[in-house]
């Protein structure tokens, strides 16, 4: 149990540092210093910095997946309301971090996809899992007649995730949630519309 606690501490400290300054700028020594763990412990749990980075990605993804389940798969809430809660949570996070960190997976995708096939593949798998959460929510909305069914939910899910990640990036550069609000407004007013009578 103690071993897992140390490993978890390394991953959590690493995730926080990486979210603030990026993967390449985060050294192993900084992670060790942040969590007060001796250097030998790092290599006991991780074979390399890349191995560590992959563990950070998987931990963040697993934790965030729980959030997505709670927000997007709540059968007691109408599907479009679930989506609105998801967007509201994203804006709240952006306010809390003062527009500094955004989405760890999105940040790493921008930083590492061109540098490492291993990271690119791992990040792509995470985004695919997230898309499937959106797909199920959108299928529910189409089944209820809340949105038109002429566009495949898979295509809509991809559009939403891609657009939202872009809006997060713009929110960081502008230090404002306005791009996120604009994306949501256009999405609900022009894309996710009820079928024509």
TrEMBL record:
The keyword Transcription regulation applies. Pfam families: TetR_C_13, TetR_N. One of its GO terms (molecular function) is DNA binding. The keyword DNA-binding applies. Coiled coil: none annotated. InterPro entries: Homeodomain-like_sf, HTH_TetR, Tet_transcr_reg_TetR-rel_C_sf, TetR_C. It comes from the Bacteria. Gene3D superfamilies: Tetracycline Repressor, domain 2. Residues 27-46 bind DNA. PANTHER family: HTH-TYPE TRANSCRIPTIONAL REPRESSOR NEMR, TRANSCRIPTIONAL REGULATORY PROTEIN. This is TetR family transcriptional regulator C-terminal domain-containing protein. It comes from Vreelandella glaciei.
